[in-house]
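Researcher: Last one for today. Full complex below.
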Amino acid sequence: MQVHRVSRQYVIRKLLIMIPSLLGISIVLFALLAMAPGDPFDELATNPAVPPEVRAALRAKFGLDDPIWMRYWHWLIALLQGDWGFSFVSRMDVSTLILQRLPVTLVVIGASQILAIAIAIPVGVLAATRPYSLFDQIANTFAFIGFSLPTFFTGLVLILVFSIQLDWLPFVYRADINATGWAFYWEHIKQSIMPVTVLGLFQGAALVRFVRSSVLDVIRLDYVTTARSKGIGERKVITRHVVRTALIPVVTLVALQMPIVFSGAVVTEQIFRVPGIGSLLITSMLSNDTPVVMGVTFVSACLVVIFNLIADILYGWLDPRIAFR
Amino acid sequence: MAEPLLDIRGLKTWFKTDDGMVRAVDGVDLHIDRGETLGVVGESGCGKTVTARSVLKLIDMPPGRFEDGQILWQGRDLIPLSLEAMDKIRAKEIAIIFQEPMTSLNPVYTVGDQIAEVVELHQKLSRKQALAAAAEMLRLVNIPNPQRRVHDYPHQFSGGMRQRVMIAMALSCQPKLLIADEPTTALDVTIQAQILELMQEMKERFGMAIMLITHAMGVVAETCQRVTVMYAGKVVEEAPVEALFGNPRHPYTQGLIRSIPRVDRSAEKKQRLEAIAGTVPNLLDPPPGCRFASRCKFAMDLCTQAVPPLKEVGPGHYVRCVL
Amino acid sequence: MAGSTPASLSASAPAAVPGGRKAQRFSPWHEAWRRFRRHKMALFSAFALFLIVFGVLAGPFIWRVPINEIDFAAKLQGPSWSHPLGTDDLGQDLLARLIYGGRISIAVGVAAMVVAIFFGVLVGAIAGMSSGRVDAALMWVTDLFLSLPQLPLLLLVIYLFREPVKGVLGVEGGAFVLIVAVIGGTRWMSAARLVRAQFLSLREKEFVEAARALGASKLRQVVQHILPNALGPVIVVATIDIAAAIIAESTLSFLGLGFPSDVPTWGSVLRDAKDYLDIAPHWALFPGSLIFITVLAINFIGDGLRDALDPRRVL
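Model: Here's the assembly. Have a good evening.
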């Protein structure tokens, strides 16, 4: 069946709505930084790697003695210009560092979301079409177990079973694999299996319940009875008329869950030592690398906003009632 | 007499709930002949909608189940049929339209897609031909600009227009029976008349039979040849329309007819509209005798002891009352 | 006699029964308990959670082994009679440490829930009672916080405020207050949205309108008439919040940014254990399972409470 086109105004309006969100995030972050007692660059004074003049220059650049709104303004301008500061631990620009680490995180998050959706939609739909059946009860119990298992514990258990006991998969993610061609990709896939599984199962478990309840909501609507009365067969009724509509709120939920996915990614990257921005956040916190901490937090917040935008556009594409308004 | 098109015999459709079995339809007999319009009347919750949906097996099972009875479609019982076999009858031979045109169409597909879906399946047409057929159906139900409107979504139509779309969809495979489940209840009064008129027109054109479910006696008087009156899951009276209005035998039917507002009378004689006192009995645990007894002015001891049988009181006129 | 036929048959079947016989016989709490009891997993979970909480509270009086007695001769031992859950790399008794850690983890969970619900109800109630700009502004802030990635934000706040708070309240107390405040402060949004939605519908109900007509003040309307009726769903969210807060605390401690190593919580014990997975898997499995079982039990109880108190909502 045909799919309608999303109007350009709709997309533009959604893009404009992003701006206050991003400003709000920047205000929250700046407020935290400004409220933190002490000078966030104090530790630089005790860091022998940082000459005093660099520290003075930084203080001047950030205008630490200016009124607060001025400081925010300068900070924001610098942020927008891509001037995110310098990491004294890694000895490179924060923006370069983050850009280096970002792709891995995006791949891990993306793959795990795909896994989560691939599990959640069929299981949730099957459970909803047979409510209170044995399958439904088993699926429901596993979903509860899935989102009650903390990611750090699942990660450790997987390492224990698949790396230590069975020795099938490596438990440390390596960026420098000495292989070429197929072997290179195979190694990458092998070392990604566990982090992606941990994140994907956790997400999938929460999604199963949501898909199920969304399908249950739709299945009792009048137009599903209309569809049944057409004699197109139960299978087409479910796929064409129930699932298609039930997935619309699921899209929003997947976007709303992005902050949680991100939290999961931080933990997973830390456990498997995946060199993404999540593990970067933790290592820079443990080594007091404030500019990197601020940068990564801001980037992760921006990613969430961007995912929300994508969800909004998908929503408009899936639901013709929205984009026309 | 020739075999009726649809013959429902002793149908019992019950629902299992947390509190027990709800006997929504509890032994209904009715039949429809080719090309006739049968009105099924009764108040909300009397089982008329469940009866209608039972014919197409559109009841969720569980919680619903067929406890007993037969639904003979051209002599063939539908109850034992598999869902796959039912799908060959749905829309192609028996079509249905519902009370709520606002929610009966899928909001995410164009109306053309939704009509074409039926045509494509049952008439083995290509997508393109099916869409053309859909536009033709929209034209038949008097939707202006059908070639363009076929690509519009349901939310771009008004309630009355959506009911026209539903009718177009239902008739697109030229069924032998159209079940109309309170097709005008949710619509404005002026639109109601237009939809009823459209159904009459379509009936003349395609020659199908109509099972018109309604609680509006006025609608019945205007459109039906025969009427079945239902009360609390049972048929209480069945008669040709003239006989029913001229000589209603069941106290419930009499009450229904008296509750029709009559502008001429009430203005002249300052007569008050009569309501039927009391409420519908609990279908979980229906009283043993006549189900209307608790609300009936003429109730006797006999009425609460056993369900009275349906007896013939005139040609084609049956009533379930001891009077 | 006019009346609309309900949209679906499954819904119309029970609706055909006027009143419903059992509902009239009991009080609402009785009815809630009847529904909760039917949720077998919730009932079983309530029992399991009771055992865990009781064990954690009474444990130190029964198992009198100190949590920080170092015994290198007994390090990294598996479960035995002298150490039922084994020992860690310093030979400290894991049972004692996990009992102590459970107290902290559960206390953090409950306290953070109280903070989150307090702010959530406050924000939701103000937004729900006022309309227009105040409501819009509060909901914008709520949505903004919802879209912030929780863990990085939690970590950032702890990172920035850890040292100063420690200076004022001491290592353990400082960590506790900071962690509770931060977890509570980043989890109030769902309660706020829920309470607002409840208020918006409840304040139009007849009984509140009657109170308004009788001249009840806004505060009185809220405290006397609206809040009690919004309580059910709030209790459900509060329960599930405890589970989320326990996970958040263990995550922080696991990442090394929560409680320090010398304060054993389930998360910090797990962090210390993760480098010894190959030689002492029991060390990681016991705290991990405790977190899992506690969180699972609370989630099931929350589900049972939802059936009992908030039957309309599906998720």
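Chain B touches chain A through 34 residues (CB under 8 Å). The mean pLDDT of chain B is 83.
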